[in-house]
Amino acid sequence: MSMIPVDQAIERLQSNSRLLVDNETIGLKLCRGRVLASDIVAGIDVPPADNSAMDGYALRLADWQEPADALEISQRITAGTSPGPLKASTAARIFTGAEIPQGADIVIMQENCRGDEKRVWIEKAGKAGANIRPRGQDIRQGATVLKAGHRLRAQDIGLIASLGFDTVKAWRRLKVAIVSTGSELVEPGQAIEPGQIYNSNHYMMDALLSGWGFEVIDLGVTEDDPEVLSEVMTRASKVADVIITSGGVSVGEEDHVKDVVESLGSIDLWRIAIKPGKPFAYGQVHGTPFLGLPGNPVSALVTLLVISRPFLFASQGMRSTDIVPLRQPALFDKPGSTRQEYLRIRSRAEGVELFSQQSSGVLYSTTWGDGMVVQYAGQDIARGDAVDVIPYLLFN
User: Fold this and answer.
1) Per-residue pLDDT reduced to its tens digit, 283-304
2) Which CATH number fits domain 23-46+137-171: 3.40.720.10, 3.30.420.40, 3.90.105.10, 3.30.300.350?
């Protein structure tokens, strides 16, 4: 069976994705990482009135003639107070963020003034409008500031708060069931016997999926037994929006996951031209989407980040899941292969260096560095070449 190129695999999953959740109204403090279910439209201007960009004096520029002239200080305006109209031929003491009084057309910064509590002498002015932040400079009433399908970040939440909204309509968190397969797997904290390994994939999947804002349903570890797997997968299909497994999707005699999924639904995609991660599988279990990650830990991580993430976020209602790589010089030489490779690297000021061991079982390679270089099929990399780099932070 021929392998499917990475871009085609992602595109096929995206074309098969559909919104799997309903919407709900939640408070601002609970919405970081959530996906908007409706547009955010400004109901007010921000700022709501002209205000001062600094501490100083507000006046009508035509009232100031020359530095020798003093202007009476007719009012003192602090942020949060409502000023009265500016009296003719006077100035108002004003502070940063305070509303500009009617009649004033300039704010002179206090460093260019001298005076006392009653009068002010202006040593240098500017043009009309200087140091005034006009009403609606940031946002105009009626403007759409965030669109449905946007995943909320801290700055987005601050923007929404600036418009006076205390809740948003967001898509419910996607329920993702995770299942580890393998009779050799042992939970951390337990004694290990010959032939056994600790279950790293399960904790890695849980951490990533939870960090992406999904609701993780932990169905634990199953042994390599088709009947047990069938029962667990059927249960997962009833409680989750998406099922993710690690292990059991390769071609070994004890790799039963693929066959079990086919018996309960279908396998629609298998064997990707990616390194590491070739045995990745996608299908359905009783109508519930299924993502089968390879068992090797780096393979599981790479396929979860590169192939599964776009599908999961699309199922959550996210409008765009694209990641734009950075370009940095390579500090290594590496011949290409027939598969698209994801090389574990570490960034330095002069470029990116390659971890010495790129095996799919070396999980330490992912913590040693801070990202991956995408080496496209057939691409040879020579020291000094500009390469595509995806920092792990971009997957957050």
Assistant:
1) 999 999 999 999 999 999 999 9
2) 3.90.105.10
Q: Any idea of the CA torsion for 256, 262, 265, 271, to the nearest 10 degrees?
A: 90
- Cβ contact 169:156 at 8 Å: no
372: tokens are 């991956």
CATH of domain 326-395: 2.40.340.10
pTM score of the predicted model: 0.89
Euclidean distance between the first and final Cα of the chain, in Å?
A: 34
CATH class entry, domain 51-133: mainly beta
If phi over 0 gives left and psi between -120 and 50 gives alpha, with beta otherwise, what is residue 271? left
Q: What is the pLDDT of residues 142-170, one digit of tens each?
A: 999 999 999 999 999 999 999 999 999 99
Contact partners, residue 157, CB within 8 Å, separation at least 6:
28, 31, 32
Q: Give the domain ranges of the chain.
A: 6-21+173-315, 23-46+137-171, 51-133, 326-395
